[in-house]
TrEMBL record:
<feature type="binding site">
    <location>
        <position position="185"/>
    </location>
    <ligand>
        <name>ATP</name>
    </ligand>
</feature>
<keyword id="KW-0547">Nucleotide-binding</keyword>
<keyword id="KW-0436">Ligase</keyword>
<feature type="active site" description="Proton donor">
    <location>
        <position position="44"/>
    </location>
</feature>
<dbReference type="GO" id="GO:0005524">
    <property type="term" value="F:ATP binding"/>
</dbReference>
<comment type="subunit">
    <text>Homodimer.</text>
</comment>
<feature type="binding site">
    <location>
        <begin position="156"/>
        <end position="159"/>
    </location>
    <ligand>
        <name>ATP</name>
    </ligand>
</feature>
<feature type="binding site">
    <location>
        <begin position="193"/>
        <end position="196"/>
    </location>
    <ligand>
        <name>ATP</name>
    </ligand>
</feature>
<dbReference type="InterPro" id="IPR003721">
    <property type="entry name" value="Pantoate_ligase"/>
</dbReference>
<keyword id="KW-0566">Pantothenate biosynthesis</keyword>
<dbReference type="GO" id="GO:0015940">
    <property type="term" value="P:pantothenate biosynthetic process"/>
</dbReference>
<protein>
    <recommendedName>
        <fullName>Pantothenate synthetase</fullName>
        <ecNumber>6.3.2.1</ecNumber>
    </recommendedName>
</protein>
<dbReference type="InterPro" id="IPR042176">
    <property type="entry name" value="Pantoate_ligase_C"/>
</dbReference>
<dbReference type="Pfam" id="PF02569">
    <property type="entry name" value="Pantoate_ligase"/>
</dbReference>
<comment type="pathway">
    <text>Cofactor biosynthesis; (R)-pantothenate biosynthesis; (R)-pantothenate from (R)-pantoate and beta-alanine: step 1/1.</text>
</comment>
<dbReference type="GO" id="GO:0004592">
    <property type="term" value="F:pantoate-beta-alanine ligase activity"/>
</dbReference>
<dbReference type="GO" id="GO:0005829">
    <property type="term" value="C:cytosol"/>
</dbReference>
Length: 280
């Protein structure tokens, strides 16, 4: 890591961001980006560490709660926003820049375009549960990659379908950036770290930590998949949106010899939890 605990440069406009980034490019720096919606935790900071390990000597974070990926019934208004705490964490991890745009900076008055993914990769799972979600994700990620011009952008594997959508976005639109997938960071009990975990009270956290344990048992023996939804409900989850075994690269039904991924989304009160595991 090249940076110390100095506060990161703060950019609130695309012009300020580009001014900083263009100077780094001229200096020959390799630049990494961690796109986030804030409420940062150790999972986000692990993405920065992975970028450093991949040779990026400049690491920047974007913090933007993107309204276009939330449905009207979802938690946009109450999504945790903790700018001061986030900036302190970025200083501690040695981030070089924090991009904190307002909604009007990303979606100016009269904004009229969006990127709508199609094909098997968005045929179901989150795309079915949250219609329009991936159009919002693809549009904002494309804008961030264009504005920030990173060499490498890191995305966690916890939101596995999102990771595949972003990789396809970069490939299909020939964006000059590589995507670095980073394994899910978990607490000591196996719960995948997520900003939405802040919504869970102590009794709900105890239930939430059963999700990974049940998935691990199914991943070790996929014959248990059919009984999985009942097991999750018996463990205390209020609903199971999906629990599926899919091809790890296309999200199609898995074929023999192909890499597989066990993917789940469950509900606990008003909170949705996502998790996934590689299946040998």
């Amino acid at each position: 890591m090249t940076a110390d605990s100095a506060a990161p440069v703060i950019a609130r406009s695309a012009a300020e961001l580009r001014a900083a980034v263009s100077g780094w490019h001229r200096a020959g720096d390799r630049i990494g980006l961690v796109p986030t919606m804030g409420a940062l935790h150790e999972g986000h900071l692990a993405l920065a560490a992975a970028l450093r390990q991949a040779g990026m000597n400049r690491v920047m974070f974007s913090i933007f709660v993107n309204p276009t990926q939330f449905a009207p019934t979802e938690d946009f208004s109450r999504y945790p926003r903790r700018e001061a705490e986030d900036l302190a964490k970025l200083a501690a991890c040695g981030a070089d820049l924090a991009y904190l745009p307002a909604v009007e900076e990303i979606y100016p008055d009269g904004f009229a375009f969006s990127i709508v993914p199609s094909g098997p990769i968005v045929a179901d799972l989150e795309a079915a549960v949250r219609p329009g979600h991936f159009a919002g994700v693809a549009t904002v990620v494309a804008k961030l990659l264009i504005q920030a011009a990173p060499d490498l952008a890191a995305f966690g594997e916890k939101d596995f379908q999102q990771l595949l959508v972003v990789r396809r976005l970069v490939r299909d639109l020939d964006l000059p950036c590589e995507i670095l997938p980073v394994p899910t960071v978990r607490d000591r009990d196996g719960l995948a770290l997520s900003s939405r975990n802040a919504y869970l009270g102590t009794p709900q956290l105890a239930v939430a930590r059963r999700l990974n344990r049940i998935l691990a048992e199914i991943a070790a023996d996929p014959s248990r998949l059919a009984a999985g939804p009942d097991r999750l409900r018996d463990a205390g989850f209020d609903a199971v949106d999906y629990l599926v075994l899919r091809d790890a690269e296309t999200l199609a039904e898995p074929a023999p010899g192909r890499p597989r991924r066990l993917i789940a989304a469950v509900r606990l009160g008003a909170t949705r939890l996502l998790d996934n595991l590689a299946v040998p």
